Amino acid sequence: MEHVKRIADEQQLEEMLSRPTSELIEMISQIDGDLMFLGVGGKIGYSTALMAKKAIDQVGIQKRVIGLDRFDSVQVIDKLEKEGIEIIKGDLLDADLVKGLPKVKNIIFMAGMKFGSEENLTLTWAVNSYLPALVANHFTGSRIVAFSTGCVYPLVPVSSGGSLETDLPEPVGEYAQSCLGRERMFEYGSLKYGTPVTLIRLNYAVEMRYGVLVDIALKVWNRQPVDLTMGHFNVIWQGDVNVMVLRALKYCDSPARILNITGPEILSVRDVALQFGKYFNIQPEFTGEEAQTALLSNAGESFHLFGRPKVSAETLIGWIADWISHEGRLLNKPTHFEVRDGKY
């Protein structure tokens, strides 16, 4: 995909985000059972579920792909159903609903709450910790790949290269603590029932409509100061995330396996803003000073299993600059990557 000069519209974007690799297609041909995506209505769910469906269709085998969510938007339901993905509408906080779900062999758990978590801490803990306990208790005979976050790690020196899976989590703030609670519930289920689990510590996924690079680009485009306090970060193309998450089904284990998923580069907020400034012919404004620590992950283990991401940060910066300069649609979901106290 590196050779793609620009992404012209959402149709092209969604095709690229959901395009399965040959390695994924081979894995899908070997893995048994149907797939269910819990929390499929979020910004990641559609393209990941569609990628799985495309891989199944290319292999030419019969597997159900099921998506569950509260589905605030009928449009999302229509899009999924049009692609042959079965829909279950419901709230995973409903214990009776969870108990009635079919015992699908392969579970991709995507439900979670981040934005606004400080304003509703009880709901944050319910969604991020109680809900996973319900799921872990029900899908005891499944493989489970569960989204987590690199926010469970502490801030580390930029020179460290980022946190490793073997490092002890030290979550800052109640959002990150509740996400560690999510992990612990899946780990408990994995140990109690022997359920094979992979926990995906992700930071940060990005595409044209949202992500840290979009946040920085918009600051430059709108001539707003760019905060340098959290001076460094990792990103990874959402399409690469989708492939790795689905391929992680093959590596589920008991006790639960932990995998960092992010890009190989440690990026400088200042340098990225200056790059966007060149694209836009705008001199960026800055505020604050770079701290010596940042929220960073080392994804060497996932590269060993899946290979390195197909799309570089440099390519992403060019794509996003073009998208914003052509007024492409945005999701208006800022990452708040600059937060250092864990209060999202």
What this model shows, in words?
This protein is α/β, with parallel strands linked by helices and 344 residues long. It has a domain at 10-206 and 237-264 and 297-308: 3-Layer(aba) Sandwich (Rossmann fold). The chain is 40% helix and 15% strand. It is built from 12 helices and 15 strands. It has a 7-stranded parallel β-sheet, sandwiched between helices. A two-stranded antiparallel sheet has the order 6-15. The chain has a two-stranded parallel ribbon with strand order 8-11. β4, α6 (121-138) and β5 (143-149) form a beta-alpha-beta unit. α2 crosses α3 and α8 packs across α10 (269-280). The protein starts with 9 loop residues before the first helix and ends in a 19-residue tail after the last helix. The model has no long low-confidence stretch (mean pLDDT 95).
**In the CATH hierarchy, what is the superfamily of the domain at 10-206 and 237-264 and 297-308?**
NAD(P)-binding Rossmann-like Domain
Strand order of the largest sheet: 3-2-1-4-5-7-12
Q: Quote the CATH topology of the domain at 10-206 and 237-264 and 297-308.
A: Rossmann fold
SSE order in H/E notation? HHEHEHEHEHEEHEEHEEEHEEHEEHH
Please report the number of helical segments. 12
CATH architecture of the domain at 10-206 and 237-264 and 297-308: 3-Layer(aba) Sandwich
Characterize the main sheet. 7 strands, parallel
Shape designation? globular
Quaternary? single chain
**Rg computed from alpha carbons, rounded to a whole number of angstroms:** 19 Å
**In terms of structural class, how would the helical and strand content be classed?**
alpha/beta
Share of residues in strands: 5-15%
Mean pLDDT over all positions: 95
How many E strands? 15
How far apart are the first and last residues' alpha carbons, in Å? 33 Å
User: Unreliable segments (pLDDT under 50, ≥5 consecutive)?
Assistant: none
CATH class annotation of the domain at 10-206 and 237-264 and 297-308 = Alpha Beta
Report helical residue fraction. Answer: 25-40%
